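User: I'm writing a tutorial on reading structure tokens. Could you give me a worked example: one chain, its sequence, then its tokens, then a sentence or two explaining what the tokens reveal?
Assistant: Sure. Here is the example chain.
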Amino acid sequence: MGIALGGEAHYQVGELVSVSGGLLFSTQGAKQKIANVDIANPLLPINTNHNLTYINIPILANVYVMDNLAVKLGVQPAINLSSNIKTSNLTVDTHAKTFDFFYSCRRVL
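And here are its predicted structure tokens:
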């Protein structure tokens, strides 16, 4: 589970179209339980915790198709600030990409 904190600005271009942009700090990650590959202790599972920290910059075009219904299309560049994997006895640097580029399309009610 992660958090996202930041702000967003919205500019109405016309009656049906607007653009928005934002700056968000986010933490993302996952927990995983995997089988141990240690032959000496094959029944001992390994718990891992993946932690990622990003600055996300969403840029969206919003099209209002009717009252209270918008379709959004845009991109979200993301800058990776930190990433690591923790296990019960080891911390691993993941060497994750420092820059990601996402695109999104969503319907907002």
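What the tokens reveal: The beta strands are 4-12, 17-34, 46-56, 59-66, 69-87, 91-93, 99-108. The CA atoms of residues 65 and 71 lie 7 Å apart.
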